[in-house]
Amino acid sequence: MTMLEDRPTAASAASWPAAYPKGYAVVDVETTGLSRDDRIISAAVYRLDTRGEVEDHWYTLVNPQRDPGPVWIHGLTAEVLARAPLFPEVAEEFAARLDGRVLVAHNAVFDWSMIAREYARAKRTAPVRQRLCTIALSKELGLPLRNHKLESLAAHFGVVQEHAHHALDDARVLAEAFRPSLRQAAARNVRLPLLECRPLTEWAEGPGRGAVPHQPQSSYRGGGGTWRPSRKRPPCPYPNPGRYEPGAPLKQGMRVAFSGDTSVERELLEDRAVEAGLHVATSLSRLTSLLVTNDPDSYTSKAVKARQFGTPVVDEAAFGQLLQHVAPADAG
Known about the structure:
This protein is α/β, with parallel strands linked by helices. Helices cover 31% and strands 15% of the residues.
């Protein structure tokens, strides 16, 4: 493979920002699906030095011990994966590739969440403390991308994709696109959008103290923290008073939706909202009072609908402040 040649930048001649990380692990995982109970079936890591130069790379298949999911996307059949090692058998080598580095991925909250759950199942902890999402970095840099897909980021920097949805090639492509992004950020002294990677503190267990079985109804939650199976919440006892008005307090009964990466574990945010008397909506409609997201310009379905419907949007920090003073529901 031919790595993309970088043009000289101011950052290559000037001093490198002292606050920048000392090394990166560019990661891609392919999975059986997108839910919290889905499994990793392949993983790749490109280790990069302080300035984004490739040090080495690593790739493995993983036997998920279940249906491989969308074979038409990742191309990995049950027959191929049956001969692959189990995750606990590759956990140590994987950890060695991540140790002491910032995890870099495209939509990093997904890759980190899948990795953290696999380590939790193996009763281990991944040695990662921070992650960097290349989608967030491209927005910080104001890159003129058509959309936020990996293929668009790759095309912007002239990186050729050879095998989309193959973990090793996706990680290579991302490493090649991340290097010039990192150098642009360094040249402009841009603060990198680093987020904390909190390991799972427990693995939920079902009846009989066994591992939670496959649950098709479970949904993906971001942010790390304690993993818990999806659960049906009791209905909100208060009527929906309508949309949130900026500058006014939240009111009990308001319908709140969440989208994207959060620094606090998503389910904990939802628990706080429910305890305050709010209705947590799993989708966004014209009846939604408020969308909570740290990335209002993203292309998630909720963010797109919020822009379409004119739904008020606040970020996670502002929502935390609003939760401290939720007005009671109207009497009667």
